C-alpha cells in the first residue's frame, strides 16, 4: 500500500511504500529534501511531521532523541510512513555542493592532538556556505573524511580544526605530510547545521572538543550584527591543555552584543578554578528556568549530544529548538 507524502512549504507530493523510507521515495520522485549520511546519524534530513505518523524499523535513529520524536520531528532517511503524511521543513536555498581542488595554505598545531588546516579554494563567483556546514576531503582510495568549517564565509580561504584519530589514514597519515601548495580534492558545502535567526531566542551553544569549529564559524558570522541575540558558549574538554582557542574566545565578546563563554573540564587538575563536569550540567545550573526561552546548538560527541538533549528537555527546554551536529568518526571510523 502506498501513502501520500506532502511537503508543506513547497507543495511537492509523492507516494511512498509502507516499507519504504520516505527519503528513498522522495529521491525516486526527484523531490529535493536535504540529506547526507542516510543512516540516521547526521540529522540533515530532519523534518517536522505536521499530519500523520511515522515508524522506524527498530529503535530510534542515532540522530533523533526520544524528546525530539515526541515533539513531532522525524528523520526521513529512516522513517516509514504509517499513512498519509504532511511534513514541514524549509527548503535548502543554498548552493549545491561542489567538488573542487583546494590548495593547502597552512598547517599548524593548535594543541597536542588538534591541527588547524587552512585551505585556499578556487575563486568561484557563486561559492558560499552557511556557517555550521562541513566539507568532505576525498582520499585516493575513494573514501572521504568530513570536517566542519571553522571560519565564516570570507573569500576563498577556509579553516578547519582536525583532531588526530589513532591509526587514522588521513589524520595520522596524509595530514601530517601536507605542505603549503599541496592539492586536496574537497566537496563542499554539506550539511544542514546552521543558524536559525528566525527563532528570535537567546542562543546557547554546547561543544565538546573540535565540535567548537562550526560554532566558531557561526559566532564569527554574528560579530557586528545589530540583531545578534545573547549568546552563551559552553565548551567541554578533558583538561585545560585541550582548550586550544581559550584566549581567542575570551576576546570574542568585543564584537557580540551579549556573549558569555564558559569552559568546562571533565578531568581538570587541582589548579583549575573554573567549571568541572559536563557542559549540559553547567548549562542547566546556570540557566535554570530560562531554558525554555532558548535555542540550543550542540556539536561534538554523540554521547554528549544525546545526553544533553535528554537532560535539557527534562528541565524545560523545547526540543523544537534543538539543532545539532554529531561527530561520529571517533567511534566508528577507526580509519580517521
- How much is the radius of gyration in Å? 20 Å
Class of secondary structure makeup: alpha/beta
Mean pLDDT: 91
- How far the N terminus sits from the C terminus, by CA atoms, comes to 42 Å
Domain FAD-binding FR-type: 97-196
GO molecular function: 2 iron, 2 sulfur cluster binding; oxidoreductase activity
Cofactor: [2Fe-2S] cluster; FAD
Keywords: 2Fe-2S, Iron, Iron-sulfur, Metal-binding
Give your account of this protein's structure.
- With 336 residues, the chain is of the alpha/beta class.
- It has 3 domains: 2-88, Ubiquitin-like (UB roll) (Roll); 98-190, Elongation Factor Tu (Ef-tu), domain 3 (Beta Barrel), CATH 2.40.30; 197-332, Rossmann fold.
- Helix content is 18%, strand content 32%.
- It has helices spanning 22-28, 66-70, 170-177, 212-222, 246-250, 279-287, 302-314, 329-332, and strands at residues 2-7, 13-17, 46-51, 54-55, 73-75, 80-81, 85-88, 98-111, 114-120, 134-138, 144-148, 157-163, 183-190, 203-208, 231-237, 259-265, 275-276, 295-300, 322-326.
- The protein has a 6-stranded antiparallel β-sheet. The chain has a 6-stranded parallel β-sheet with strand order 17-16-15-14-18-19, with helices on both faces. The chain has a 5-stranded mixed β-sheet with strand order 2-1-7-3-5.
- It is globular and about 60 Å long.
- Its cofactor is [2Fe-2S] cluster; FAD.
- This is CDP-6-deoxy-delta-3,4-glucoseen reductase.
- Keywords: 2Fe-2S, Iron, Iron-sulfur, Metal-binding.
- Residues 3-93 form the 2Fe-2S ferredoxin-type domain.
